[in-house]
Amino acid sequence: MAARIFILNLGVVVVMTSMLMLSVVCTAEDNEVTQFNDRPIVGILSQELSTNRSDWKTYKSFIPASYIKYVESAGARVVPIWINKTRSYYENMMSKLNGVLFPGGSINFDAKYGFGDAGAMIYDIAKGFNDKGEYFPLWGTCQGFELLAFLGANRTDPLTNCNSGNVNLHLEFLPDYSISKMYALASKEIIQILSSEQVTVNFHRFCLTQENVTRYMGDINWRITTLNKDANGLTFISSMESRKYPFYGVQFHPEKPLFEWAPQLKTAHTSSAVKASQYYANFFVNEARKSHHSFSSSEEEKESLIYNFTPLYTGKEKKYFSEMVYLFEW
């Protein structure tokens, strides 16, 4: 597929608005006020559904439930974001959300009106928000990581074929990982786990290399934080972040050790794997807490949440890798 291609707290004042709770924390270091949204809501982008099942013919897109639970485990709620919509739809949705997660999968980014086109609009809108001072984070997991690379390369394919399927790996940290936003506040225990234990779950046939970041994306724009090697010895990027925007990507699946149990997969479920996975969820949701977008009313918020949909248990069928999925008719 061409496109798969910190302080001493002086005081805390809680201010309630109609849909947004802000914790106002005065710090001794800079005497500035940093506001945190205690009710973050994250959007998760759906993706095209391809199936031969006759009873699924009315459904057009889906989201694996593990991503929903992953975000919820860190203290945020979730709103599904549909594909095949206009830019105004994404602008409207993102003005009410506090971040967007691009999930894993196997979609062709060049497909018209699908995951790639929707992701491109979301990426551009998020850059616009941040450029005008409205903090808005993006997170990409596996396919989502690849989408960030694709968009960071101006929709040029920066990926290369590789062999890293159904394998757990430890991360190889680059020297400046400690100054990255993704890892700067990680405990010594988390870094030790990630660097020495095989806890990151990999399921990908495409990789992003350092050479292709330099060639297509620009080293000045992206900080590479960790590397790995595939089964053939190819060195690939396993985590990275934008230097300018709060955009983060991991090539592995931190949601799987927590919520995916397919026995045919070699997913790590050790206590260390769970701790490491939870770190990433907590990190991204804490980034979302820095966004102060909100819905105009409680009613609008409630109508938008994932709670309005019922997941389907697919884990009992061996051909499915996801324990549960949400199916959508649009």
UniProtKB/TrEMBL annotation:
Example of a GO biological process term: tetrahydrofolylpolyglutamate metabolic process
Extent of the signal sequence: 1-28
Pfam families the UniProt entry points to: Peptidase_C26
Enzyme Commission code(s) on record: 3.4.19.9
Subcellular location: Secreted, Extracellular space
InterPro entries on file: Class_I_gatase-like, Pept_C26_g-glut_hydrolase, Peptidase_C26
Lineage: superkingdom: Eukaryota
Predominant subcellular localization, coarse grouping: secreted
GO CC terms: extracellular region; vacuole
Keyword annotations from UniProtKB, A to Z: Hydrolase, Secreted, Signal
GO molecular function, one term: gamma-glutamyl-peptidase activity
Protein name according to UniProt: folate gamma-glutamyl hydrolase
Family indicated by similarity: Belongs to the peptidase C26 family.
Organism whose genome encodes this protein: Frankliniella fusca
PROSITE patterns: GATASE_TYPE_1, PEPTIDASE_C26_GGH
List of catalytic residues: 142, 253
UniProt catalytic activity: (6S)-5,6,7,8-tetrahydrofolyl-(gamma-L-Glu)(n) + (n-1) H2O = (6S)-5,6,7,8-tetrahydrofolate + (n-1) L-glutamate
